[in-house]
Amino acid sequence: FWETRVASLTPHPDQRVRDGLRRWGVREPLIDSGAGWVREGPVREGEEQRGGEKTLEDWPQHPILHGQGGGRKETTPAAQGHQLHPGAWKAPQPGVPGVAQSPQAGACASTEQTREELVAAGTWWGIIYLRLLKQLVSALSYFSGDLAAKLHVRLRDKTALFYNIPPVQSYDRPVFRRVPITMRDGKTELFGTLAIPGGPERPRPTVLVRTPYGSTGHDPVATLYLERGFNYMIQDTRGRFDSGGDFFPIQDERQDGQDTVAWIRAQPWSDGRVGVHGVSYMGMTALAAASDPAVPVETVVPVMASSEIFRVAFPAEGAVAVELLAMWTWLIVQLGKQSSSAGLFILEAVTRTRMWVAWDLERLVGRACSALPLKNLDQELVGHPVNYLRDGLANPRRDLPFWGTRNQLADLSSKGGMRCNIHFVGGWHDLFLPQQLEDYRVAREAGLEVRLTVGRWSHWDVIGYFGVAQRIQMHEYLR
Fold it and tell me: Nearest 5°: CA angle at 412, between 410 and 417?
C-alpha cells in the first residue's frame, strides 16, 4: 500500500492553492488524481519523463513524504484537465480566474502582482500588520464609525490576501440566530448557531460543522464563509451544552447528522447544497452527516479524522492509545464547565498558550497514563467515573457487540452508496493516519471523487495545519 498508493499522489490542480500552501511549509500537498507525476517544463539532460506508479524511493526529496522543503513545481495532465464532480459547488458570485478583484472599487491586478503581495503578506510581518489593523479598527469604532468601517474593509481584504482565499464578496453585517432542530425521535432538540450573510435573504449553499466543544459565541471562521456568500451553521452534538439527550461518543452521530442535513435542505434560506468539515471528532461527525445517500451532501473535508474509531483507540491488538483517550476525555469534561469560553479554552489547552492550562493538562495526563489499572483512568483525570471511557476500555476487541453502533461513522465502500466529494487532510504523526489512509483506499475503489493531503503534523499541532485545512475547505466548497 505504501509503495503503490501513497507514491501515486499528485499535486493539487489549483496553482493558487499550491502557492498558498507553500507559504505554510507544505510545498506540494498530496492529491490523488489517478495519474503519475509529470514534471513541468522541459526534461533536463540525462532525465526521462516519468509517469505511472512510483515507489517512495523514486522521489527521495519529496517535501511531504520526507518532511522537508523543495522548490519543484509538478502537475499532471489529469490535474490540468480536471473534471469537476457533477454536484460540485460554484462560487456564489464567481470572479475572473487568475484576477484579484476588489468588490468596492472594481479594480483588478495581474496574477503576478497578486502573488507578490501574497508573498509579502504571508510572513510574520503580515501577521503583525493584521493584528495592529484589527486593534486599530476596534479602537476607532468608539470614536469614528465611518473611519472604522473603511479600515474594516481593508482588514477583510488583507486577511483574504494573507490566507490566499478568494476576495470578499459582501461586507454586510451577517445575521446570527440560535436554532433548535428536532431529531427523528421527536423529543431531542439539538441547538446550533446559524449565521446568514447580510443583505436580502435568499437561498444559498450552507457549510455545517457539528461539535461537542460548544457552538455559542462568535466563530471567527464563520466570517470567511459568510463574506463569500455561504450560510454557516455550527451545532452542539447530542448531550453537549444546549443540546438535549445524553452524550455518548459516536453512538448517535450518524442519525443526528443526517437529520440536521435534511432540516437544512428544507429551509427557505438553503438552496439544498450542504458541505461539512471538521477537525478530529468534528471531522468524524462530518463523515457521519454525509453517510446517508438519501440525504446527500456535496462536499466533506475531514481533517485529522477517519470513518472508524476503534483502530484509533486500539491501534494494535491489546494496546490502547492512552494519551489520546486521556487528553480528549479531560477536554470534554473540562469544556462542559467553560460555557461561552469553550472554544478559547480548547485552543489554549491544545496549543499550550496559557500556562495554567498547559501545566494542568500535562500533569494530569502524565499521571493518568502511568496509573494502573486502566479502568481507573477517569478517576485519575477528572475525579469521577466517565461511562463511555470505562465501557470502551472494557471492550478491547472490534468484534464485540459494544462496537456495533459505536465504531463506524460512514461506509465509504460501494455498499454505502455515498456520492459526495471527499478531501481527507491528515498528518504523518497523527494517530488517525492509518485508518485515514484505509478510508482513502476504500473510497477510491468505490469510485468516489476523493483527495488526500498529508503534511508533517501531529494530532495536536493545530496551529501547524489549521491554515492549510481552511484553504482546502474553501477551495473544495468553491469548486
Answer: 95
Write a three-state SS string for 111-164. HHHHHHHHHHHCCHHHHHHHHHHHHHHHHHCCCCHHHHHHHHHHHHHHHHHHHC
Structure-block grid coordinates of residue 216: 455559542
pLDDT at res. 138: 79
One-letter amino acid at 1 equals F
What cell does 329 get?
476525555
What is the spatial distance between Cα 451 and Cα 425, in angstroms, rounded to a whole number?
Answer: 9
Q: Using 50, 70 and 90 to split pLDDT, how confident is the model at 146?
A: confident
| Residue 411: Cβ within 10 Å count | 18
Sign of CA pseudo-dihedral 81, 88, 4, 304: positive
* Helix, coil or strand: residue 189: strand
Higher pLDDT among residues 362 and 344, named by residue: 362
**String of DSSP letters for 64-97:** HHHT------EE-HHHHTPPPPTT----SS---T
Q: pLDDT at position 26, please?
A: 42
Q: Name the one residue in this structure whose C-alpha cell is 483527495.
A: 451
Q: Which helix (H) or strand (E) holds 396?
A: none
Residue 218, pLDDT score: 59
Q: Given the DSSP bridges, would you call strands 421-429 and 450-458 parallel, antiparallel or unpaired?
A: parallel
Given the C-alpha cell 495545519, which residue does it identify? 465
More confident residue, 361 or 106: 361
- Distance of alpha carbon 54 from alpha carbon 69, whole angstroms: 20
> Counting Cβ atoms within 10 Å, is residue 187 exposed (0-12), middle (13-18) or buried (19+)?
exposed
